[in-house]
C-alpha cells in the first residue's frame, strides 16, 4: 500500500472526539489551505484521492466534512464558478425515504436527510429535482435538526436533517447538469478513496493491537495477510482508475471494490482482536463504528446491479 495510502499513518485526532473538536480541526485545515485539494482530472486525480484517503485514515468524521467541501469546490469549478471567500461548503443531495428538496418559484422547499456539517458550514450545494442550488446557510429559513442523527458511528460528523422553507439560492448549471457532468463519476470514486482510508485506519488499529501484545498466532497472522491483500487490491483499482477518464463504469467498479474491502476488513479485524480493543480502546471502537455507517453510501446489491447493467450494456 504505497500509491494512495502512505506507509506511515497520518496523526490521528485527539480522543474523545466531538463535533466541536472535529469542526475546529476542519476550520484549522481550511485556514491552512489543506482543504484546497487538486481538482480531479488527469494526473491530479491520484493526488486528490491520496489526500482524501489520508483524511479517511485519520478520522472518518473529519474526512466526511473535508470530502464534502472539496467536492463542492470541484463542482463549482466545473460550472465556472468560484466558492465564497473563506466559506466551508457541503453537498447535500440525499433523497432518502421519499424526502428531498424541490425548487418552487426559485426557492428551495423540503427536507434533506444526511446533511453533514449542518451547524458548521456556511454554504451548501443542494440537489433539488434536476437542479443544483447554492444556498447561504445563514438564512433563517434553513432549519437544522441534529437530533435526527442517532447513530454512534459518524456521531461527530455534525449530521442530521435540514428543512428548507422557501430558501432562495443561486442555480448551478442547467437542468440535469449535476449528474450528467464528467465530474459526477470522479466525485463518486473520490468518496471511495475516503472509505479506503477508513478501512486502512481500522487495519492500523489491528496492527497496533498486535504489536502492543508482542505476539500473534497463525490465525491472526492469516487475517492480517488477508486484510493487507484486500486493501492493496482496492488501492490498486483506485490508483489505476486515477490515470484514466472516470466514467460510471470505472466509478462503480472503484466503489464496489472498496466497499467489499471495507466489509472484509471489519469482519476480520474483530476476529483478530476479540472484544478487548472494541470495549477498552475508544479510538479503535470509534473507527469500527464509523466505517460501516459511511461505507453504506454504497447501496450494496442495488449498486452492484447497476454496475452489472452498465457492464452488460458496454459488452
Automatic annotation (TrEMBL):
<keyword id="KW-0285">Flavoprotein</keyword>
<dbReference type="InterPro" id="IPR009100">
    <property type="entry name" value="AcylCoA_DH/oxidase_NM_dom_sf"/>
</dbReference>
<dbReference type="Pfam" id="PF00441">
    <property type="entry name" value="Acyl-CoA_dh_1"/>
</dbReference>
<dbReference type="InterPro" id="IPR036250">
    <property type="entry name" value="AcylCo_DH-like_C"/>
</dbReference>
<keyword id="KW-0274">FAD</keyword>
<comment type="similarity">
    <text>Belongs to the acyl-CoA dehydrogenase family.</text>
</comment>
<protein>
    <recommendedName>
        <fullName>Acyl-CoA dehydrogenase/oxidase C-terminal domain-containing protein</fullName>
    </recommendedName>
</protein>
<feature type="domain" description="Acyl-CoA dehydrogenase/oxidase C-terminal">
    <location>
        <begin position="176"/>
        <end position="293"/>
    </location>
</feature>
<dbReference type="InterPro" id="IPR009075">
    <property type="entry name" value="AcylCo_DH/oxidase_C"/>
</dbReference>
<dbReference type="GO" id="GO:0016627">
    <property type="term" value="F:oxidoreductase activity, acting on the CH-CH group of donors"/>
</dbReference>
Amino acid at each position: 500500500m504505497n500509491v494512495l495510502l502512505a506507509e506511515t499513518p497520518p496523526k490521528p485526532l485527539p480522543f474523545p472526539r466531538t463535533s466541536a473538536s472535529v469542526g475546529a480541526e476542519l476550520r484549522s485545515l481550511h485556514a491552512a489551505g489543506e482543504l484546497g485539494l487538486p481538482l480531479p482530472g488527469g494526473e491530479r486525480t491520484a493526488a486528490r484521492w491520496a489526500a482524501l484517503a489520508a483524511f479517511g485514515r485519520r478520522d472518518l468524521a473529519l474526512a466526511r466534512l473535508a470530502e464534502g467541501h472539496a467536492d463542492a469546490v470541484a463542482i463549482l469549478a466545473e460550472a465556472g464558478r468560484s466558492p465564497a471567500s473563506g466559506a466551508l461548503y457541503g453537498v447535500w443531495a440525499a433523497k432518502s425515504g421519499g424526502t428531498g428538496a424541490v425548487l418552487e418559484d426559485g426557492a428551495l422547499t423540503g427536507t434533506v436527510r444526511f446533511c453533514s456539517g449542518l451547524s458548521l458550514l456556511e454554504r451548501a450545494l443542494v440537489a433539488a429535482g434536476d437542479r443544483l442550488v447554492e444556498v447561504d446557510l445563514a438564512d433563517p429559513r434553513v432549519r437544522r435538526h441534529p437530533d435526527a442523527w442517532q447513530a454512534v458511528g459518524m456521531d461527530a460528523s455534525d449530521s442530521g436533517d435540514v428543512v428548507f422553507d422557501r430558501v432562495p439560492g443561486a442555480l448551478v448549471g442547467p437542468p440535469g447538469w449535476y449528474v450528467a457532468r464528467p465530474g459526477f463519476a470522479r466525485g463518486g470514486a473520490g468518496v471511495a478513496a475516503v472509505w479506503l482510508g477508513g478501512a486502512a485506519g481500522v487495519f492500523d488499529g489491528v496492527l497496533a493491537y498486535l504489536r502492543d501484545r508482542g505476539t500473534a498466532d497463525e490465525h491472526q497472522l492469516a487475517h492480517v495477510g488477508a486484510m493487507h491483500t484486500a486493501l492493496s487490491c482496492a488501492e490498486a483499482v483506485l490508483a489505476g482508475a486515477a490515470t484514466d477518464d472516470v466514467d460510471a463504469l470505472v466509478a462503480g467498479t472503484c466503489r464496489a471494490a472498496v466497499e467489499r474491502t471495507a466489509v472484509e476488513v471489519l469482519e476480520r479485524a474483530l476476529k483478530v482482536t476479540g472484544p478487548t480493543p472494541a470495549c477498552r480502546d475508544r479510538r479503535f471502537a470509534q473507527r469500527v463504528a464509523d466505517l460501516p455507517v459511511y461505507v453504506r453510501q454504497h447501496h450494496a446489491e442495488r449498486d452492484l446491479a447497476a454496475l452489472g447493467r452498465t457492464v452488460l450494456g458496454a459488452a
